[in-house]
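User
Here is a favour to ask of a fellow structure person. I am asking you to supply a protein in sequence and structure-token form. Please set it down just below, with no commentary around it:

Assistant
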Amino acid sequence: MDKLRSFSTVIDAISVCIAIFLQNIIVNTVFPMGGVPKIYLLGTIPLAIVTIQALRFLATQLISRSSWIRHLILREDFIEGTWRGLSPNDNALVTIAIYNHDIRVTGKVFDDAGKLMLTWRALSTRYDGDELRYLYSATSGSTKEPKEIYGYCVLQFARNRPHAAPRTYDGYHVDVSTSFEQLRFQGEKITDKTLLRNLQTLEGTKDVIRQFETDK
């Protein structure tokens, strides 16, 4: 995503500045009176490169491991999380994850009893101006006759207040393998920690789906 790329560029610039600063400290410590041999300056270049790479690696690890940091950087573009369908007969769970600069989307569709009916994953994604577009490959939950379905989906995110992270979306998808009918739907982000914890298990997921179906 653009903001993560911009942040990485800033980190690179800061890393270079720190490397130069450390290089100057070492040089001034070893040669306090000046007259630094050129060969010594060349010898500090590997140290500067290692410093830059280490700081870049550290920043990348912090971003990839901390959703709080990603939220802080992305702000109103923080679409990461688990989302649920709000439309009637829409028992879908959509998971959006951010890895480095890429957006990965996976999803599952359940029946009213919480039985898995369909799974899908995005083959390619593009996020721009509150809109996420992706091509997907879906597989039916039937073990007897699994069926591959291909299509594309568009999600338009909305937020409760300016500069806040999105909380809902309107969208549509088209299954090009079966028909070209445009099917519209709505969704909202799941923020309840108990629900998110329950979604980590099969039985917990069934309970959550049944609860969502009751609430509709």
About this structure: The chain has two domains: 2-65, 78-215. The helical segments are 2-30, 38-43, 45-65, 67-74, 193-198, 202-215.
